[in-house]
């Protein structure tokens, strides 16, 4: 049974950062891909979402992060799940994050046992 060390905490933080980086740097690519598959321009999607073409462009370039309400509206409009849009699910519906981010379990003493 290992207890938390500075190294294990830093490794954990690094894994979390990689996880969130993957999520937040996938939504733009996915919005653009699906928009193009649906033969929509940025302006057309913007009109449907009651926003501007500039905002859609910023989402696609990941210069602006859509809030949860906008994510849901984009998903409904483009016919995809939020998990897919955020990179948590592949095209076939399989989860992309698996157990590799589960670094340990909470034991009976409230401490994390590192794997």
What does this structure look like?
It is a single chain. With 115 residues, the protein is mostly helical. It contains 6 helices and 2 strands. The protein has a two-stranded antiparallel sheet. Strand 1 and strand 2 form a beta hairpin. Helix 3 (42-48) crosses helix 4 (53-60). The termini are close together.
Shape: elongated
Q: What strand order characterises the main sheet? A: 1-2
Discrete helix count: 6
* Strand and helix order: HHHHHHEE
Helix-and-strand structural type:
mainly alpha
Whole-number radius of gyration?
A: 18 Å
Query: Between the first and last Cα atoms, what is the distance in angstroms?
Result: 9 Å
Ranges where pLDDT stays below 50 over 5 or more residues in a row are: 99-106
Reported for the largest beta sheet, the result is:
2 strands, antiparallel
Portion in strands: 5-15%
The total strand number stands at 2
DSSP helix fraction: 40-55%
Report mean pLDDT, rounded to a whole number: 79
């Amino acid at each position: 049974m290992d207890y938390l060390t500075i190294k294990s905490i830093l490794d954990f933080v690094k894994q979390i950062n990689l996880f969130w980086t993957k999520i937040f740097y996938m939504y733009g690519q996915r919005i653009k891909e699906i928009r193009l598959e649906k033969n929509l321009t940025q302006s057309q999607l913007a009109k449907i979402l009651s926003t501007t073409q500039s905002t859609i462009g910023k989402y696609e370039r990941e210069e602006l992060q859509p809030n949860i309400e906008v994510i849901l509206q984009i998903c409904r409009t483009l016919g995809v799940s939020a998990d897919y849009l955020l990179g948590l699910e592949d095209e076939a519906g399989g989860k992309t994050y698996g157990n590799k981010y589960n670094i340990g379990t909470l034991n009976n003493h409230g401490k994390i046992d590192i794997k």
